[in-house]
Every structure is written in structure tokens, then in C-alpha cells.
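Appendix B, record 7
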Amino acid sequence: MRRAGRFLEGFIAHRLSRPVRAITALHGALERSTGPIIDLLIRLWLAKVFFVSGILKIFGLGAGPYLSRVAYPVPWVEPLSPTYLGAALQMTIPILLAWGLATRWAALYMLVLVLVVQLNYLPLDINLYSAVLFGWLVICGAGPLSLDHLLARGLGDTALPLATPLTRLTRTVTRHLRPYYQLFIRLWLALALYAVSAQMSPTAGLAKLIPRDSLAHFAPAPMLAMIGALLLALGLAARPTALLLIVIIAGMHVAGAANPADVYFVMTLALLGLYGPGPLSFDQWIARVVSRVGAERFAVPAGAPRVVIVGAGFGGLACASRLTRAPLQVTLIDRHNYHLFQPLLYQVATASLSPADIATTVRGLFSDYRNVEVLLGDVTGVDSDRQAVLIGKRRLPYDYLVLATGASHSYFGRDEWEPHAPGLKTIDDAVEIRRRILAAFERAESAEDAIERQSLLTFVIVGGGPTGVELAGDIAELVRYGMDKEFRHFDPACARVVLVQSAPRLLPTFPEALSQKARHSLKRLGVEILLESKVGHIDSDGVLVNGRRIASCTVLWAAGVVASPAARWLQAAADRSGRVKVEPDLSVAGKPNVFVIGDTALVNAWKGKPVPGLAPAAKQGGTYVAKVIQDRLRGQPAPAPFSYRHMGSLATIGRKAAVASFGGINVSGAPAWWLWGAVHVAFLVGLRNRISVMFSWFWAYLTFKRGTRLITGEGRPLQEDRGGIQR
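C-alpha cells (predicted):
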């Protein structure tokens, strides 16, 4: 028997380890991202139903057979409490459920109530599923999207009476009872499916505890129900089984064979699909075997090759993520301790988002991978002869080097303009631009000279690419809608926003039709657009455009970028923007173990054209280089040359206005705006960031208010003027 067990473990470890690890990772990501949302939806659904039942009870509408059995089959139990007290509880407790406050105790009350009704008054499948869902909330509590979760840390260490012991009790209950409750749910559903498939007639007492009407869909397919019951009972492929059952129920609804309890049945299956069958299952046993073998197999051996990745942007993260399971020592270096989502950086500059909404700590992303080391440092050079990265006086050896150092703004040889016209590449840049924009309004409020005030209220953006267009549109919305009635000596809507573009049209990389629509949307917001206009000079008082002076205290630069000094570090060939000319496999000529990706690399891998400096391009490059390194370690042939797959181009221009181009399909207006928002939220790293950004956008969309209008930074928002105001 022991020999058979070892054989089975060996088979699983060697034949199923890779797919099981991939599925386990997918399940973990699904639970972290979707689990809180499903938990919230279940609470809201139960709260809605029981809240309405309380209202019906107050007005005496609960006795109708339709309302009691179909629409709101909720207990009206006079022996348990007086009429109005019971109704008050049924209206108060759902509110607690919806907010996720005292969730366990509210769910415990409803669980007792539902079971009493089921066993003594009104046996319904809906009552059984409700009881199971309430039982889950009693044992596991509410998810991350709840007040209980928000207050848990503070209540666990507080002076409030009984708060600390009750918090510890709930954690103990979850830790010890959750595995058995997951087993109970599986066995209960399996017994119900078996009873339907075998057409059993259980005893009267047992019949009240097994859902039958809601599972009548499976009666015509007894073999399917029997297989499903067996898989659920064993906890084998439990998640796919739950998903299949949900699909069958959805299909029955489409076919018109609906049952009032189907929604509850689907919610119960969703718990099983998201959180899995629990530790007492074959799925968990297989995962443990694979994890144990994987830990032995992927432990970094002594003397393993060292991969050094410089830059924690999109490309660096993509490369490091693909090497987390490889027998390599991976070191990820960045001058910041966070990964920045640059496409939304302009919204930090215009006070729409907080910096924390678009940044995630790098260490947190790789805390579960023992072969990845994260270093905070500023790389100053590369000694390619001795294969070492220079971090100040420190030398970090490497066997493979990946440079994903990005780009910064370029002033085309006029670096003296930088203090007067900041670019937008880092959080510090965004905070400085936000400080200048908001400080301009504060200074305009105290200005006594009309010409000075007009200069303060003139905002010039140089560059008509996506960054410039988005900046201009967002500033125009801020001045016209976001500051209404806040100033007493001027109307913010009179502010002037000027967009300067040297090319004949805006968004040169987009189709011309979309460029025209973007121009029309900006003009509708009141933005002045100067095409085929060249900047001759920039100083603290304004900008010279085509020989004409525009007085402005706030000039922003979005006209060009220059690559990092990677080419100088490597003494490699580069183009005028400083991008390293790399080989088809993204390695540097003469240095096959050094790779350059993202904005720092120049490679003609997009239908014979240079790959654009976009986030998808950097991510694809990082993934490709990781595959090249792993193939070399395995002694496999080199992959095909890198080829960039263009995912499309997006740019937004204020509320309900955006342009998008995907494979020849052009979209503009509100549909493109929704698409732009969905894509950017999906690409954000971390569930907290996604929720925070969606909430900020939703709030700003409904109220026109920006929630992060703080003047911070080293500069002084108010300068000494003739009125004597100083800060």
C-alpha cells in the first residue's frame, strides 16, 4: 500500500506538476481578485431579500402565497419574536450584512431563523441554500470589502471590553471549522445530486434538509448528476465541477426552465468554485504533493546562474515574474521601492488620483518567491568585461543582465528649459506638476494685477502625443468643472489651456480620423490647439511659440523622451534618442548575455518598424527575454526572433471622450472612454489599486470633484508679491 502511494505521488509530481502548479496559481489569483467581489454580492443579495421581507411584514404583505414562496420566501416567525420587533430585526440585520458589520452575529441570527422556518413552517430549497450561505458567513466572516475586515486589526488590539477575545475567537473558529464546513458543503451537494439521480425517496425528516426541486434540472441526466456527486464528495476537480454545474444552470435559464432557488444554488457553487474544496479533499492532497516536490525541485541550488534585472517597470517585472520558478538567482534593482503605472501618471498631476493609487511596492509582489531578491539602489554603470553591475561603490556580479531602465523626458538639447517646463515620467514629476497647477490658482486668487492673474491662469502643454492630449483634456476639465464656486476674485473657468504641437496633427501615431476627433473633443473643452508650431524659448514668465510670446507661469513638457544611459554603460551603438540597438533576440551585439528591453531598446520587430515605447511592448520584451534565458539553461534551441504584437492605441480626452485604434478598427467617444477605463484598470497591479481607482473615477464622474487637490512638494505654492502674502 505504501509502495502504491509512493508511485502515485511520483506520477503526480512528474506528470502533473506543471499543469497543477499553473491551475493552483490561477485559482489563487481568482480567489484574491474575484473572491471579495463574490462575497460582497452574496451579502448584498441576502441583505436585499431579507430587508424587503421586513418591509412586507410591517405592511402586512407577507401572507400572500406568491410573495412567501416565490419572490421573497423569507421566514415570518411569530413564535420567535413579536411582529414589529421581528420586522425591525429583519430590517436592521440586512443593513449590517450589506455593510459587513458584525457579520458573523447577524448571519447567526438569520441562520437560526431560517432553520426554524425550514423545519417547522415552510420547507423550501431557498431556505436550505440561505442557511448554507449564512453558515459560511458565520464561520468565515465577511471578505475584504467589509467594515469587519477594515476594523479587524484595530479591534484585535483595543481597550474595548470583550473586543480582543471575541476577535481571537472568530479567528480560531475560522481556522479550525472552515475545512470541515467546506467538506460539509461538498457532501451536502453530493448527497442532493445523488438523491436526484437515483430518484431516492428519503425519509420525511431528511427530505427537509436536502434540496430537491432546484436540482430537478439534473433528473433527465442521472449519469451526469452521479459523476458530479462523486467528484464533489471526493473533492476531485471540485472547482471545474462547480463551474460546469453553474453553466448547466445558466443554460437551463436560457432555455426557460428556471427555478426560484437557482440563484442561491449558483451562489453556493460559486463559494466552492472560488475557495476550493478545502484541505479535506483530493485536490488539496494533489496540490500538497506538487508543492512539496516543486519546493525541492525549484530550490535555488548553490552556484546557480545569477540574473540581474535593472528596472522594476513593466518590462523588468514581466521578466522577473517569468523567472520565479527557474533554478536561477534573480536580483531586481530599482531606484524606487515601487512599481509605477505610468499611463495614469497624468491623473496624479491633475489631482484626479493619489500616487498610492497607481504604485505598488515591488517587495510585496515577490515576497513569495525565494529565488527573487529586490534591491533598492541607483545603478551608475555596467562593467561588461567583468560582468558586474555598479551601484555606487558596490559591484553586483551577473551571469545574465537585463536592462529595463526606461526613458526620461528630452528637451532636444535645451536642458535649461527643464526647471521651467517639467516633464512627466515619475511620481515626483507628477506631484511637482500638481503643485504648480494648484499653486497657480492660489496665487491668482491673491493677485491684484489683471495681467499677472491671466499669466497665472494660462497653462501651456508642449507636445501633442497621448500624454500631452490627456494632460490638456484633464486640466481643461479641472478648471471648468472641478473648482466651481471655490474662488472669490476670479472664475476658474476663464483659465486658458494651450496645447502646442510641432506636427501637422495631434496624436501622429493614431489614424488621422481619430486625430481629428481628438482635436474636436479638446476644442469642445476649450483647449487652444496650435499645430505646426515650434517652441523657441521657455523661461519662468512663459514660452515663445513661432516667435509669439505666451505669458504663462505653468508650462508643461510632453514633447519627447530620451532613453536611459544604458548605451553609455555598455558602450553600445544607439540612435539619436539614446536607445540601444539590439539584436533580434534583444541582446546587445557582442554581449549575448546582456539584454535591453522596453523604452531603452531599439529593435525593428513591429512589421519591420521600431517597436513603440508602450507598456505592452515592454511586457512582451520582458517575457521574451525570460524565455531566451530559460531555453539557454535547458540547452534548447533559441526561440524565434522577438516580434511585437500591437494590442492597440488608446488616449482619453476628458469625460466621455476618448479615441482607440485596434487592428484597423477605430473607436471614439463614450465607447472608447469606457474601453480605455476598463483596459487601464485591468492593467493596474493589485486589487486595492483597482478598487481605489474605480472609486475615485466614479466619485469624480458624479460630482466633478477631485479628491487629491493637495499642494505638496519642496516648492513654495505662494510667492511673496505686492500684497505681502508669503508662504
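Remarks on this record: Confidence is low (pLDDT under 50) at residues 63-82, 716-727. The radius of gyration is 31 Å.
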